[in-house]
Amino acid sequence: MTDTSNTTIFELADQFIALANQLSQQEGDVGKVGTALRFAAARFNAFEAAIKSADLGAEKDNALDWFSAEYREMLNDNLDDHIANPPVMQEEAVDDSVQIFKG
What is the C-alpha to C-alpha distance for residues 23 and 29, in angstroms, rounded to an integer? Predict the structure, then answer.
């Protein structure tokens, strides 16, 4: 597979985020949309692994480790960004169903 597009991963991600924002507003449930987005990412990444692997059964653990590490690094970077630059929410857009994350 050769990448012939000049579109960056950040531009593609922005398109997914725009759709997620639209769906969050439509559904009124950020958590539901976040869960759906994680499921979609997992499903698409499993497909990606399957088409890139000669023997996915044998390489499954390596794929899990690689995708998990990639996601963890990306999530960590974005959490740091939101800590440094908290999102400004409009009063009516505040999601009162936000959960407190406990370790």
Answer: 8
